[in-house]
Amino acid sequence: MPNVIEFAPIFQRQLDLAAVQECTSGWMEPNQSLIIYNGGADVKIPILEMDGLADYDRNQGFVTGSVSLHYETMTMTHDRGTQFLLDAMTVNESGFLATAPAVMGQFQREKVVPEIDACRYSTIAQRAIELDRVRYGYTPTPATILKELDADIVMVREEVGEEEPLVITMSFATASILSQNDKVKRIVDVSNFAKGDLTYKVKSLDGTIPIVPVSSKRLKTAYKFWSARGEEKDKFGFEPLADALDINWIISARKAPIAVSRTDNTRIFDPQTYQQANAWAVDYRRYHDIWIPKNRMGGIMVNIRQAKPAAPVTGNEE
Fold first, then answer.
1. pLDDT in tens, 62-107
2. Which of 105, 120, 147, 159 is most solvent-facing, going by the fewest CB within 10 Å?
3. Residue ranges of E strands in 58-165
4. Most confident of 36-40, 105-109, 286-290, 302-306
């Protein structure tokens, strides 16, 4: 069935494009433009290091500094997938070509995109906690939220400067409280925000820092990603860990996080080929991960609702 075979790579490209556009964290993926990716789970991330200025001597001239560009090989730790069966008695060949995109599109919007977002934001939070780029113990109120937000922005500006574009990722609940501040009503504007190949209208602080609203369910510091195997049989998807903390917002230099998400070779089997059932079978497999080079962590600040816990904060569980 050549039309189905030809459909698979088109289907795969559309899934990758949609993932960038639908993830609230999709703006992090353009930072992958300099990485080397040749398929599979491994990527090579460029690390650029250089010396600073030195004194110029009129007799001896310049002091020779060094510039080092090397690539660090990283492995995407999230290798996730599910197989879907569409019964042959209810879906014929033409029906499959019409039904499969709708099924997989809904699966990606409702299951895949929230998991990718949750993984990215929690990973950023964990890295920020490790390197003391976190402020704890703030419960947002209309009267105080702008002051607290400004304090975190200043901490990032001190590291990256005034010209570096920033992004604020904020829970819907916190964004609602921010909108109740009288001063914010005068300094929040609507601006364009590029994500993938599309440009969106979002609220922005002072017309320069976009505010990306995210469900509070995706803004926790740690999650359990179920395997649906062994003792976790029939447990799919993800959920926050019991001791996960609530993230009010994340302020990030736009170039700091490097996020990668790839749909592996999408495989489609017709009912004559698939032997375990009289059904069309679609294999969905996605690699994804996020990294923040250490020299870019100054561009991250995370604000957490709870007080700093006495014990170390739990990380994500696979």
1. 888 888 777 778 778 888 888 888 888 877 766 666 577 777 777 8
2. 147
3. 67-75, 78-87, 134-135
4. 302-306
Give a yes or no: residue 315 inside a domain: no
Question: Cα(110)–Cα(18) distance, rounded to whole angstroms?
Answer: 12
DSSP 3-state helix, strand, coil percentages of the chain (rounded to 5)?
35, 35, 35
Q: What is the DSSP letter of 216?
A: G
Total number of domains constituting the chain: 1
The answer to whether residue 148 is domain-embedded is yes
Residue 313 lies in a domain: no
CA dihedral 253→163→249→219, nearest 10 degrees, is -30
CATH of the domain at 268: 3.90.1690
Tell me what pLDDT residue 139 has.
Answer: 97
* pLDDT tens-digit readout, 225-238: 998 888 888 898 99
Name the residue range of residue 167's domain: 2-47+72-304
Give the N- to C-terminal CA distance of the chain in Å, as an integer: 38
